[in-house]
What does this fold into?
Amino acid sequence: MERVSFASGKSLDFVAIGRLCIDLNANEINRPMEETMTFTKYVGGSPANIAIGMSRLDMKTAFIGKVADDQMGRFIVQYLRDNGIETSGVVTDRTGAVTGLAFTEIKSPEDCSILMYRDNVADLKLEPGEVDEALIAGSKVLLVSGTALAKSPSREAVLLALRYARKHGTKVVFDIDYRPYSWTNPQETAIYYHAAAEKSDIIIGTREEFDMLEQFDGNTERSDAMTAAQWFGHHAEIVVIKHGKEGSIAYGKDGSSHRGSIFPAKVIKTFGAGDSYAAGFIYGLMQGWNISRSMEFGSACASIVISSHSCSDAMPKLNQVEDFMSQFKPV
Ligand SMILES: Nc1ncnc2c1ncn2[C@@H]1O[C@H](COP(=O)(O)OP(=O)(O)OP(=O)(O)O)[C@@H](O)[C@H]1O
Ligand SMILES: O=C(O)C[C@@H](O)[C@H](O)C(=O)CO
It folds into this structure.
């Protein structure tokens, strides 16, 4: 199958569930964080970045999540609203939980790392009863970001959201999004990732993330093709494995495979590549484009974002991507 079909007659194109946090990106770049004195604040969280990316591409977008009852939580909600994202599914924690912080260290364009403060974060306190079934029922796509499975009650909220998606014919995109600091142990990660991946129509991850997901599935050396075949045995129609500056590869349930090239980039920081790639790729599929064209669009979005200081703020608008693709060709 070259193209994915999405339900018609839905009021939303895309709803994401998971982490809403704050990125604090070092202003003094090309040095270790020990020498950084100032940061710029952006909305962050992989699913938030992807939702912002989808909204910038004119997709009708909503979010299901939980924010802290503080200035950071209010900043996040306002930013989502300012970017045209439906926030009725975003609830405010009343237990004193805090907003997750992601300090981005930019030692060099190719050597970036994230220091994450994730203790007692509001996003992992989303309750199953706070998942708005109507938002999922009314959307063509539900994006599940893997880290939301890291702790209860967020874990159960996500598993319920998956059941709603299956019930209402909403396509599920599972972005594995492995962030080790949120998990207790790798075994737990694999178990809950499996629960989500088995119910997903499109699975996106890096090779390392799929290895984490498949650690109990035998064959220590797992090829991308083996990975894809495994998930076609469940619900998947498309499996995408991302390989950084080597590009990406996607497999279709029809046995097709597609190599994704990269676009040239004046890399400031590598973070944000995955989220922008996902937004562009999903956008392309939702336009009815084939897998290869959707991958190319995603790669263009990624090059734009890694050439910028932020992730969310830098998520490109449609005309920006089109201009970029008219100037540059995949390398
Ligand atoms: N240095 C680069 N130059 C151009 N394109 C890149 C580069 N790095 C990544 N990309 C593009 O972005 C896509 C996703 O990047 P990557 O494989 O690093 O995902 P990721 O690890 O999820 O990203 P992130 O760092 O945001 O978590 C790649 O498949 C490629 O198309
Ligand atoms: O997903 C996170 O918690 C970190 C993000 O906010 C950050 O922008 C990033 O790493 C994007 O890939």
Notes: The mean pLDDT is 96.
